[in-house]
Amino acid sequence: MKKFLLIILLLSSARIFAQDVKISGTVTGAGTNEPLSGATINVKEKIAGTTTNSKGQFTLSAGKIKLPFTIIITAVGYDQQEVTINSASQTVSAALPVRTTMLNEVVTSATRVNQSILQSPVSIEKMTTKAIKENPSFTFYDGLINLKGIEAVTSSITYKQINTRGFNTTGNSRFLQLVDGVDNQTPGLNFSVGNQFGASDLDVESAEIIPGAASALYGPVAFNGLLSIKTKDAFKYQGLSVAVKTGINHVGESFADTKGLYDFALRFAKSFNDKFAFKVNASYLTGTDWYANDYTDINPLVPVANRGPNDPARDALNIYGDEVSKPLVGAGLVTRTGYEEKDLMNYGVYSLKLNGALQYRISNNLEAIYQYNYGRGTASYTGSSRFDLNNFVLQTHRLELKGSNFFFRGYSVEENSHDSYNTRSLGQFINRTWVQDLNGQTVSPASADATWFTRYESAFNGNVNGVSGNNHTAARTFADQGRLLPGTSAYDAAKDASIHNYGLSGAGVFSNSKFYHSDGQYDFSKQIKVFELLAGGSLRQYKMFTNGSLFDDKTNRINITEWGSFLQAGKKLFEEKLKLTASIRYDKNQNFKGSFTPRFSGVYSVTPMHNFRASYQTGFRNPTPVDQFIHLNVGPITILGGAPNNSKGLNVYENSYTSASANAFGAAVGAAIGGGATPQQAAVQNKDLLVKSNVAYIKPEQQKAFEIGYKGVVNEKLLVDVNYYHSSYTDFILNTVVVQPTAAVLGADGKVNPAAAGQVALRSVNAYQLYTNASDKVSAHGVSLGLTYLLERGYVLGGNITKSNFNLGSANANNIAQYNTPEYSTNMNFGNPNVSNGFGFNINWHWQSQFDWYGTFNGNRPGRIAAYSLFDAQVNKKLPAQHTTIKLGASNIFNKHISQSYGSPAIGGIYYVALVFDSPLK
Fold first, then answer.
1. What distance in Å separates the CA atoms of residue 458 and residue 467, rounded to the nearest whole number?
2. Domains of the chain with CATH codes
3. Is this entry keyworded Signal (predicted)?
């Protein structure tokens, strides 16, 4: 009988512990008693949760869960509140106090687990939902430049590149960008094309940025930093949202009329019984792109004093086709007549984003998610040329299983370049379709360049009847007879034919590459208890296919596998005032040796509001598939990846001259020919100016960084964030340009081979842009200060300043990646979300100092980026009864035309009006 009673008692207890829990309640704003619609209620340390309806009411079916437990109630713009649930049918009444601004946000990216931003062991910046709504820039992505330490480069209205801590580029493969944990780099380019294929403003919940090395937790791509964009959960953010934005750009320009910009977005999310939820997103942005129309003569073979529009060897920055040159007897160096970028590029840009997600809560602590993203658009990209990413498509599939302390995720990323092309090559190929010989007959493309120069030389030397000799203008006019003119049907036909001709014979760029990725992590802290322990890993496989247009892969398929794993342990000491964290990650790419990347950090909290931090971090970057295997002819130069198999049989790494010596040699030869010498004589006289190159095959690059900082809140009014970092780099991946004659560059005596020198003098050489590593060690350091102050009546004043320095040391400037970062950059912002009667405003100001930009577009020669400042501003009116906000704003309100990288377009002002409808469903 005693045993029977004991069994009954145990069964009764089990029923008590396993009973179904269903609680309800109301959430209001403290002091106003107004219901809070869309507030989120989550079970602490579980994933179960729900949201409030338009009356602030909620019902949470938590299933079978042990009592007591805690729920966390949050709402945008309010402090969160925790409530203990002791009854299976408890009624909750919560009043959340208003939070004017988020001085103590929760972030995830710094340690891959949730923590206070004040206690992050490394520098981290965050753009919240509130900041996204109040952002005055045209898109939230444009507004990221106003965060501390963030650099931005605009290649197109639909393509802005984000970077941190130097070594900036227009295509940044050293900076990882995640959207809901998915790396949204394009597999063929190996970098993210800004937010072209990301998330719409309506669906972005937050954006977190880690400046500097993050490889210890995120692997090789996070060498320079991380941007993690989190979209809105379908359970937490339900309802219908619609945004309509229209604006204008190209205001007051002499070369273009004012154009319209249009941005439409829609989001709908719905949950059923707090078990199943879905969301759909659609957005479309379209307009006329910025014009790249800097016609500065940049020909390095011509003395600066002789350059300009009348230079017969003019090579204008944004004119393409004029890179083809040849020294002519009597005339000197001459270039072909090129085409302006506006006649080659498709400036009608757009960005279409479609997204859908299904979420199913299997239990209180297990959720399955499937998400599909489709992006298609047109953008201009400044690389070794100006590329038109025309109708480019990027698709991702994501499947994830997650709990409160773990996740397992798999996804695929696939691209289709469709009608993309290289404008520099396009100008050259069009130039080869119409050239006539001296008898007036159109010649084949293969002999077009040589024939054009023959016509020019004959006319200049007075050997053509009716054309005055010794006259460059007359000679060019004669050589250009039959030239296809932009706007004509013949020109359009030649342009279209070259765009859809891929590989060495056309300007088209084709890629249908993809990669598959899986990763996961598990937090063992609850099981261990003595210290925190997090473990994770990832596996990725690239499957490249460009049909020979980017890679030599028509028959040789390129598949690359890489994997990595990490451990992170943390421990609080000295009454939990000191938090020590150690991380280590190991990564292996099949083509390179494995790399360990440790990170050590400490945070000392004098109080929860005052925190000092220090960290030692390491970073590494495997050469990307492009770094390893690109084999792209861009007209006057072939870009060649640094994997040994990629250049097999070409002998270019072993037998070539440095570009710098070839330029010096070419200038000397051109001057001698201009003085009457024959090309052969000029070559022999100046051959010793040529220097044999010494280029190594590619390998991973390495970084070591140290950082100290303080972040705290003073008197609950002033947020202070200051940090200093020092980073050193070895084996930096870079490009170097060489020229290769067919003859051996050195003779048997070890000196320059006259035959090879003669080929260089006659331009009978191949130019290559090779991927390799820096042989020298360089370093960079910087300091940043950020302040945010809460004024009376809801006004917020903030600002930050960053000073960055690059230390070349004893390194050869020609052998390292360029810093491409201003010494000073600063931002200020001032705003109030509710000045009076629903009116709010926000103003941002950005300024940065001048610096020299080095990039492959200009042959790694410097181009000055002038100092500039930008003002963005918006005013808005909220109509709560209509769930609508009207916003009037401007990006670059004073319409200053500035370029952020040499060769990229000058961006001007955008003036817009937006209407945003946001209605919760419940």
1. 10
2. 2-96 (2.60.40.1120), 106-292+345-420+782-919 (no CATH), 304-344+424-505 (no CATH), 627-697+735-773 (no CATH)
3. yes
Residue 574 exposed, middle or buried by CB count within 10 Å (0-12, 13-18, 19+):
exposed
Read off the DSSP letter of residue 856.
Answer: G
Strands 638-640 and 766-773: parallel
Please give the Cα distance from 385 to 427 (Å, whole number). 11
- pLDDT for 657-694, tens place per residue? 998 899 899 889 888 888 888 888 888 889 999 999 98
**Secondary structure string (H, E, C) spanning 20-31:** EEEEEEEEEECC
Contact 733, 655 (CB under 8 A): no
Q: How far is CA 380 from the centre of its chain?
A: 14
CA-based R_g, the chain, Å: 31
According to DSSP, residue 541 is labeled E
Closest CA to 152 of 795, 910, 907, 922: 907
Residue 468, C-beta contacts closer than 8 angstroms, at least 6 positions apart: 462, 474
Segment 261-307, tens digit of pLDDT: 999 999 999 999 889 999 999 999 999 999 999 999 999 999 999 99
Per-residue pLDDT of 315-366, as tens digits, reads 999 999 999 999 999 999 999 999 999 999 999 999 999 999 999 999 989 9
Give residues with Cβ within 8 angstroms of 795, minimum separation 6.
Answer: 830, 831, 832
Contact 319, 340 (CB under 8 A): yes
Contact 183, 413 (CB under 8 A): yes
Tens digits of per-residue pLDDT, 578-620?
A: 999 999 999 999 989 899 999 999 999 999 999 999 999 999 8
Burial class (CB in 10 A: 0-12, 13-18, 19+), 439: exposed
pLDDT of residue 162 exceeding 90: yes
Query: Pairing between strand 532-544 and 115-116?
Result: unpaired
**Of how many residues is the chain composed?**
922
Here the tokens at position 302 are 């011509």
Distances in Å between the alpha carbon of 481 and those of 82, 435, 437, 442, 484? 80, 8, 10, 10, 9
Backbone angles phi, psi at 689, to 5 degrees: -75, -20
> What is the model's pLDDT at position 379?
96
Angle 754-761/659-674 helices, nearest 10 degrees? 70
- Token pair for residue 326? 């040849």
Tokens found for residue 54? 């338009």
DSSP, collapsed to helix, strand or coil, labels residue 216 as helix
Residue 18: is its pLDDT beyond 70? no
| Residue 11 confidence (pLDDT) above 50 | no
- Contact present, 597 and 585 (Cβ < 8 Å): yes
pTM for this model (two decimals): 0.89
User: Do 867 and 898 contact (CB within 8 A), yes or no?
Assistant: no
Pair 731, 653: CB distance under 8 Å:
no
Strand segments (E) across 65-195: 69-74, 81-85, 91-96, 106-107, 115-116, 125-127, 150-156, 159-164, 175-179, 182-183
Facing residues of 21 across strands?
Answer: 63
Q: What value does the mean pLDDT take over residues 376-393?
A: 95
Q: Are 52 and 27 in contact, with CB atoms under 8 Å apart?
A: yes
What is the share, in percent, of the chain residues with pLDDT greater than 90?
72
Q: Quick one: the chain helix, strand, coil %, rounded to 5?
A: 15, 45, 35
- Is the separation of the CB atoms in 205 and 217 below 8 Å? no
Q: With 0-12 CB in 10 A as exposed, 13-18 as middle and 19+ as buried, what is 398? A: buried
| Per-residue tokens: 916 | 């945003």
Q: How far apart are CA 389 and CA 421, in angstroms?
A: 7
Among 775, 777, 735, which residue's Cα sits nearest to residue 639? 735
**Cis preceding-peptide flag for 68 (omega within 30 of 0):** yes
Q: How confident is the model over 132-150, as a mean pLDDT?
A: 95
Tokens 């220097």 -> residue: 691
